[in-house]
Amino acid sequence: MSIREGNLEAPIRHPINWKDPDFYNEDLLNEELERVFDICHGCRRCVSLCQSFPTLFDLVDESPTFEVDGVDKADYKKVVDECFLCDLCYMTKCPYVPPHEWNLDFPHLMLRAKAIQFKKGETSKSHMMLTSPMKVGSIASKPLLSSIVNWSNNQKILRKLTQMVLGVHVDAVVPKYHSKTLTKSFVEETHTSDEKVAIFGTCYGEYNDPQSVLDMVDILRHNGVEVKLVKKTQCCGMPKMELGDLETVESYASENIGPLKELVDEGYKLMAPVPSCVLMFKNELPALLNDDENVKAVSEAFFDPFEYLSYLLGKDKLKIDFKQLDKDIVYQVACHQRVQNIGGHTKRILEMIPGINLDVAERCSGHDGTYGVRKDTHTYAVKIGKPVAKKVTENTDLVISDCVMAGNHIAHIADQKVDSIHPISVLKMAYGI
């Protein structure tokens, strides 16, 4: 029987049956890992995406049989640990994703393996803390303490101590903490409109980068949109999902979905400044909690910021009276925005600005939250992000990414010194607000 090479159909994803006892059966997991690894070994087109695939192929090539059956199953963990669930292999490379009969979903298989590792207690305490941005941020952003934290993060000797205790690589760029958080800075307004957006500020927007969210608010209001900030939110759950801690993901969702569904019922569309958080509500929570109609309703109401601006543009409600902005910009398209499968809305709108020159990089930054800062993976994060960083020249004015953490990482590892900001802040410049 012949097997066709790939799909003409669009990729689909199955629900993640993480509450089925077989999901945590290690023997069944290893059977599936061997099946999928054998397919990947025979294809190898994902070799340039991340460190998981070179790790796998080296294990195969160095095995006694030169095939997957010669790889010690204990070494499968080495492949799993390098996957940071960017989803690019699934969305941009793999020809065998469902509905193909081989039914290959590499990222969600890695998620299953991570979940088993977490259940077995194999996750380090430092990694568990790094994937708790809401808890860390609420402490580190306290008045006076935030200044001490920010100062210490710029001291090489103290960073070496942080590396030993918390596992944060001494050379990794780490975000600043703001005592004037997003919630404290956001100003309510009485303006009402048919177009209404509620912003889920995210842990990063709340504690590390409130200005980008405030710029987003200014742009929306400039275009006549009624804006509300979602209050008392929990983390979206993406960091815990990448850890394999699915019970905590469900717990966070139980806190977030109710208030978000109420806003949806009031006619609000939902938005978040970080692509990973948007992806979590759009795609991942519906896959994990596929029988929850409220999760589905929230998913359908969620927009990436520039996706929403394109929606306004389509309704002739987006102001396009942009000022001349003579800037050469390296634009890294965030992985978790790409895999939302919504198209290039950021590029489309920014290129409407007179004088702007975008050098677009559709490659992974290598950062992915904790992967880019951990001492055991930072070197690989630099290796993965270097092709994008090499686009930065002495003529580059800015680095931008819809994921500010990714943009900061690229600017940090570039040979030329350059600032990094959210694309929404470039748009605010062009409006002259």
Question: Could you explain the architecture of this structure?
Answer:
The structure is a single chain. By secondary structure, this protein is α/β, with parallel strands linked by helices. It contains 22 helices and eight strands. It has helices at 26-43, 52-61, 76-81, 88-93, 106-119, 125-130, 133-140, 145-152, 156-166, 182-185, 202-208, 210-222, 238-243, 246-265, 275-288, 293-301, 305-314, 335-338, 345-350, 378-389, 404-413, 423-431; strands at 196-199, 226-229, 269-271, 302-303, 327-332, 356-361, 398-401, 419-421. Helix 12 (210-222) packs across helix 22 (423-431). The mean pLDDT is 92.
Give the terminus-to-terminus CA distance.
63 Å
What's the helix-strand series?
Answer: HHHHHHHHHHEHHEHHEHHEHEHHEHEHEH
Main beta-sheet annotation: 4 strands, parallel
> Which CATH-level-2 architecture of the largest domain?
3-Layer(aba) Sandwich
Indicate the percent of residues in helices: 40-55%
Structural class: alpha/beta
Determine the number of helices (DSSP H or I, runs of at least 4 residues): 22
Kindly list the characteristics that best describe this protein.
four-stranded parallel β-sheet; alpha/beta; 4 domains; 433 residues; globular
Summarize the topology.
Elements: H1 26-43, H2 52-61, H3 76-81, H4 88-93, H5 106-119, H6 125-130, H7 133-140, H8 145-152, H9 156-166, H10 182-185, E1 196-199, H11 202-208, H12 210-222, E2 226-229, H13 238-243, H14 246-265, E3 269-271, H15 275-288, H16 293-301, E4 302-303, H17 305-314, E5 327-332, H18 335-338, H19 345-350, E6 356-361, H20 378-389, E7 398-401, H21 404-413, E8 419-421, H22 423-431
Parallel strand pairs: 1-2, 1-3, 3-4, 5-6, 5-7, 7-8
Helix pairs in contact: 1-5, 7-11, 11-12, 12-22, 14-16, 15-16, 20-21
